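Dataset card, provenance and construction

Sequences and ligand SMILES were collected as paired inputs. For each pair, a complete structure of the chain with the small molecule in place was predicted and serialized as structure tokens. The example below shows a pair involving zinc ion. Curators did not alter the output after generation; any descriptive sentences attached to a record were derived from the structure itself.
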Amino acid sequence: MGMIMVRCPQTGRSIETGMEMEAERFQRMPVFFSRTYCPHCRTYHEWFAAHAWVEETRDRARVALA
Ligand SMILES: [Zn+2]
């Protein structure tokens, strides 16, 4: 499982969408559209799946241990 991430168009920082999904499944999904609250701008940003990516929880755990 991984966290679906999007890039904030205002600050360029990554935002956790709060949606978790396996990366392989995410890549197979049809194009969809969503909106996520941005803690940097304190507003909602709308985004397309094409602009999102999945950050694997495994990778994050490894970073935390490094
Ligand atoms: Zn933002």
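Derived descriptions for this record:
Residues 57-65 form the longest helix (9 residues).
The chain has one domain: 2-56.
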